[in-house]
Amino acid sequence: MQRTTQQKITFLADGFIWWTGGVDFLRLCIGGIDSVVRDTTWPVLVPEETLLQRALAFAVATKRWLWSLAGKQPAITRPASIDQLRDAISSAGCSIEILSYYGNSKGLHRAMRKLDAQVVLPCFRSPGKNSPLKWIGYYADLQHKRLPGLFSRRERLKRDWELKTMLAEASAVIVASRSVKSDIEEFYPKRKASLFALPFCPLANPDFLSSIGDDMLLPYELPDKFFIISNQFWVHKSHESAFAALRLVKDAGFNDVHILCTGNTYDFRAPGHLDMLQERIARDGLSDRIRFLGVIPKRHQLEVMRRSVALVQPTLFEGGPGGGSVYDAVSTATPAIVSDIEVNREVDMGVIEFFKAGSAEDLAQKMMGALTNPPQRLSAEATLAMLRDRQQQLGAMLLKVISFVADPELAGTPRSKSPDTSGIVKQ
């Protein structure tokens, strides 16, 4: 396995393998560094369960079994498999070697020594206050601060403790947007960690811009004209505003337009959310115009997206600009109609139109505009050139953070302040 001479870097999958956005973020980091440090096979560490974790897993399984006896079927969350992780990261054109380690701080330290690695990233949680490792932390968003009503008091306290611990024990923390960086600076002014906001950087993959063929999509029975929403059905994703907009579009005479939804339909914080949406859809006479495809293979999802009029992203809160679906839209040269919340305004490439967040009326106007005057899509060549340039900017930023953590004196950035990273993103 050839290793970079700049720094000996290892990537950590712990925490990120439990949700699609986490795997996408891990791929983003590896792909960015690989774009500027070529011909390298990157080690990716995946945790094995400890004895305590196995005991907890057994207890959870027992609880689920008891619930099933009572007629309840709680949602089951499973981590990405090794094959799924390899396929996802390899789609960035990277060469990786997936290695396992005993899933605690000591096990991580042993694995790092064995690899002779200097820095590990991104870390979903702190390896410990007294860890000898040089590591880079990550935090997704401050939803528990901005939307506290979506969480129990216990969950808010847990998230608050996790973030305070990260900020106290890390020397550097990366986040997916300037908005998250600003939120942390507002709510946690006293911290050890320096903050680095990464630029908006969708994946550059030529396969995403080519068709997989009609036969693969036959099971979905795609209508001729449709918009797509690719979000998990969290309450804050505001699917209802898009469905209300579709009713207005239909009332305006566009009778043959549909919305297709992909993504997990369950929100553990609001188990009845999907039922409420379906009742509203039926009441508005849209049952034959809105379809839920659920979780489908990624390449299928991207191909369905490419064939849509546009992606609709009605979200009211995100950690990364536009959420994962806007990253996908830009990667596939698909136009996107996106809510104008602050973090989404950091989307600075692709064919993007913003609408007033939460306004079905404004969204309906933008949807009708896309139907009557379809946006000009970028060519595959222009899209890839744009994305590869941004990927190299991301890689340069991450190498800067790695140098800072490995040797802050040489990096020239004092630990007590968050460096100015806004210049990395083009305006």
Could you give a quick summary of the protein structure above?
The protein is an alpha/beta fold and 427 residues long. Helices cover 41% and strands 15% of the residues.
Question: What descriptive keywords fit this protein?
Answer:
13 strands, three-stranded parallel beta sheet, disordered C terminus, 427 residues, disordered N terminus, alpha/beta, 2 domains, 14 helices, seven-stranded parallel beta sheet, Rossmann fold
Written overview of the protein:
The longest helix has 27 residues, at 380-406. The two termini are 39 Å apart. This protein folds into two domains: 9-199 and 391-424, Rossmann fold (3-Layer(aba) Sandwich); 206-378, Rossmann fold. It is 41% helix and 15% strand. Helix 8 links the parallel strand 8 (225-230) and strand 9. By secondary structure, it is of the alpha/beta class. Strands 3-2-1-4-5-6-7 form a seven-stranded parallel beta sheet, with helices on both faces. A three-stranded parallel beta sheet has the order 8-9-10, with helices on both faces. A three-stranded parallel beta sheet has the order 11-12-13, sandwiched between helices.
